[in-house]
Amino acid sequence: MLSGKSKTFDWTSRLGIASTIAEALAFMHQELGQHGIIHGNMKSSNILLNNNMEPFISEYGTMPKDDHQQSSTFATPIANDAFKGDVYGFGVILLELLTGKLVKNDGIDLTDWVQSVVREEWTGEVFDRSLLKEYASEERMVNMLQVAIRCVNSSLEARPSMNQVVLMINTIKDEEEKSLIYQV
């Protein structure tokens, strides 16, 4: 989705793509079938864009949620772990949208790099320069970065559900849309 030959997305497009993907994943997790569907391999190369730059999730798994199956190591439902794995993958996609970088770019792990920059309080350095050039709202970009960081948290329990992610992203999107109305 964000390869070197791809079109540069403006902030509003990136926000819309993030919102659409989040809503689709939340729908898969909560609404499809009796127990939900886990993607199982959420990454940017599994997000396809049509001619209108609308995202579609591809290559999703059909592993149904099974609350009774337990992991022998952690004694937590495997499916819930897999749902949280989807959340992590989505968080990485958000980081790619915000930074304009791929997961493994020049041997640097994107999640580690972003977290180290944020720890050093240089948060503005993580954002794609094209977003800064278009004067995208740094406050809303920081809010989206915070969502991404919550999604890639190393603790499964600390990661939000996709429904929570949808609420956070749509709040940011609503703020963006209101600011655009006031600019006119």
UniProtKB/TrEMBL annotation:
It comes from Trifolium medium. PANTHER family: (WILD MALAYSIAN BANANA) HYPOTHETICAL PROTEIN (PTHR48007:SF79), LEUCINE-RICH REPEAT RECEPTOR-LIKE PROTEIN KINASE PXC1 (PTHR48007). The keyword Transferase applies. GO terms for molecular function: ATP binding; protein kinase activity. Residues 1-172 form the Protein kinase domain. InterPro entries: Kinase-like_dom_sf, PRK1-6/SRF4-like, Prot_kinase_dom. PROSITE patterns: PROTEIN_KINASE_DOM. Keywords: Kinase, Receptor, Transferase. This is Putative inactive receptor kinase. Pfam families: Pkinase (PF00069).
